[in-house]
Amino acid sequence: MKKVLLFCTALCLAVAMGCTQSSTTEDDATGTATATGTATTTPTTTAPADTQAATLTIADMSFGDAITVAPGTQISVTNDDSVEHSVTSRTEGAFDVHVDGGQQATLTTPTEPGEYAFYCVYHPSMTGTLIVK
Ligand SMILES: [Cu+2]
C-alpha cells in the first residue's frame, strides 16, 4: 500500500513539473513574439513619415497628385501596377526613370527649380507634374 502511494506521489510530481515546464516555455515564446512585433512596427511607422515628401507611387495607371520637392532630391518611385511605367520629363533630359511592375526605382530631381510635366513613354495618357522649388 505504501509503495503505491509513493509511486502515485512521484507520478503526480512528474506531471506537475511537466506542466510547469511546458507553461514556462509558452510564456517565453509569447514574450519573444510580442517583443519582435513591437520592434518591427516601430521602424515601419517611422519610414513613411520620413520619406513621404520624396515618394512617388504609381498605381492604377496614374501618377497621382503633383508632387513638390527640393532641387536635387532623390525620390523613391514605386510602381504598384503589374506593367512597366516610366517617369519621363517633357523637358528633354531632366529625368527619365523606368520602373518594372511591382518594382521601385530612384529618381533624382533636377537642380533647376521649376514645374516639370512628365509622362509615361509606354502609356502617354499617363501624365503628372513635378514641382521643384
Ligand atoms: Cu505606363
Automatic annotation (TrEMBL):
Start and end residues of each EfeO-type cupredoxin-like domain: 38-132
Keywords annotated in UniProt: Signal
InterPro entries: Cupredoxin, EfeO_Cupredoxin, ET_Amicyanin
Source superkingdom: Bacteria
Signal peptide (UniProt feature, chain positions): 1-18
Disordered: region residues: 23-47
Bias kind Low complexity: ranges: 30-47
Keyword Signal in annotation: yes
UniProt-recorded name of the protein: EfeO-type cupredoxin-like domain-containing protein
Organism: Mycolicibacterium pulveris (Mycobacterium pulveris)
